[in-house]
Design a protein that fits this description.
The protein is built from 5 helices and 12 strands. With 216 residues, it is α+β, with helices and mostly antiparallel strands. This is Pseudouridylate synthase. InterPro entries: PsdUridine_synth_cat_dom_sf (IPR020103), PsdUridine_synth_RluA-like_CS (IPR006224), PsdUridine_synth_RsuA/RluA (IPR006145), RluA_PseudoU_synthase (IPR050188). Its EC number is 4.2.1.70.
Length: 216
């Protein structure tokens, strides 16, 4: 397996992560992006952010510790623009808006949950009466933020098996074979000295098929 490289220089490499592939090793992970890409490039890599296993799109790694420290600082300051695309059930009340629903972080079992502010901006790209194709911009970086926020808006992402509409997910799977989470990291804009570095992922095949299935 070889991962498609969007951009690389001496400090970082960006790849177009496929859906269904975990970013890092884990107890139930047999193959992950880190292992595949390190073998592909022949260097040790430092993940700079994460994507859920089922989320495709732009994923950035540092090639050495100094670059990791630098870019983690940039990412942590929210100077990076992260944009996603999602296909959802329903239609938002407005063509564009902001979702500011606080999100609990931490583990409930350990009683260490903390409620943190979270902010997602959305813009309708195309819509029918029953489905919407959205662009989303993150202004904070909470776990599952987009999935939680769209569910709170009343527009759960198609294929979301944690926060979504399970009955409609099953109906989509039966009618059109649409089963995957319909969310991908579309672009990442990094501030640079001369001009911003814009990294874009291709629209995944499963997402294209889902758009076609719902006539968008």
């Amino acid at each position: 397996m070889a991962l498609p490289i969007i951009f690389q220089d001496a400090a970082v490499v960006a790849v177009d992560k496929p859906a269904g592939l975990a970013v890092q090793p884990g107890a139930r992970v047999r193959v992950c992006v880190v292992d595949v890409l390190q073998k592909q490039l022949g260097v040790r890599l430092f993940p700079l952010h994460r994507l859920d296993k089922d989320t495709a799109g732009v994923l950035l790694f540092a090639k050495h510790a100094r670059a990791a420290a630098l870019y983690q600082g940039i990412l942590g300051s929210m100077r990076v623009i992260k944009r996603y695309r999602a296909l959802c059930f329903g239609r938002p009340p407005r063509e564009c808006g902001d979702i500011r629903v606080p999100i609990r972080t931490g583990t409930a079992a350990r009683r260490r949950q903390v409620v943190r502010a979270a902010h997602t901006a959305y813009r309708v790209l195309r819509a029918t009466d029953t489905h919407t194709y959205l662009e989303l911009t993150l202004h904070s970086g909470r776990t599952h933020q987009i999935r939680i926020h769209l569910a709170a808006l009343g527009c759960p992402i198609i294929g979301d098996d944690k926060y979504g509409d399970f009955a409609r997910n099953k109906a989509c799977a039966r009618a059109w074979g649409v089963k995957r989470l319909q969310l991908f990291a579309h672009s990442l804009v990094l501030p640079c000295a001369c001009k911003p570095l814009v990294l874009r992922a291709r629209m995944p095949v499963h997402f294209l098929r889902a758009l076609d299935a719902v006539a968008l």
